Amino acid sequence: MGATISLDYITHRFSRGAAPTLEKIENRIEPGEMVALIGRSGCGKSTLLHMLAGLLIPSEGCVRVNGHQVSRPSAKWNMMFQKASLYPWMSVRENAALGLLFSGMAKTEAFSRVDELLEMLGLHDKRDVNVQSLSGGQQQRVALARSLATDPEILLLDEPFSALDAFTRTALQEEVPAICRDLDITMVIVTHDIDEAIAMADRVMIMSQNPGRIVGELDVELPWPRRHMDAGFQSLRDQLMTQFKDTDDGLAGRKAITETTDDDAENAA
User: Fold this and answer.
1) N or C end of the chain: smaller count of CB under 10 Å?
2) Across the strands, what pairs with 38?
3) Which of 190, 205, 5, 218 is nearest to 82 (CA)?
4) Averaged confidence pLDDT in the chain
5) Nearest to 212 by CA among 56, 28, 8, 47
6) Where is the ABC transporter domain (predicted)?
7) pTM of the prediction?
8) Could you give the domains of the chain?
9) Taking the CB of residue 133, how many other CB atoms lie within 10 A of it?
10) Per-residue pLDDT reduced to its tens digit, 15-26
């Protein structure tokens, strides 16, 4: 069963007195919902994802999962990064079962559980192969199997497909949401790729920068699997691009007002 995520007025500064990286972020993600956070580089979307994972604590406000404040990592949520971060001397099966083995599960039981996931991800015939011999896409599938093996309620994705070729990336953009729907997992993905956000999410949140805020949302009411060339897909892409432009125009306007105010203050002095 997926979990509810609540973002309760989150503000974050990396040092005392510094300008906020994130400011007054409030939102709610429902159980089993798949959400994409999109924004330009430096808007704080990965910082926010690290807070969801319990890897970073907000300066103000908090993250709650099923009503409980997040203060540290938990087996109830797992995170995938841009790099698969596999142990190169281990087999596919050993890497996928790592979390289960660390939790004290017997090897035979752990391997039995991950074998089902490897079958689902098209890696069953490679379960005893050393991970160094796999392609980048296959290694990310192993990382995905490792993330799913502990039966998480939440899957957090930090641009995990950005380094992959277009064909593999498109395949995983279809496979991961299908698995999350089948297993009823709440999913949050950070991306700067508008097409990826539409392909994978039920809802897209748009973030501005300096400071990072959620300034827009768009529901993605398209059938699965998503097809990039469909008229509905392209219409949503155009809507998101327009919202991005409006956000940039708004930021430019606020910056101009601030600079004018500063200049007036200096002249008055």
Assistant:
1) C
2) 191, 206
3) 190
4) 89
5) 47
6) 5-234
7) 0.87
8) 1-75+186-238 (3.40.50.300), 77-151 (no CATH)
9) 10
10) 888 899 999 999
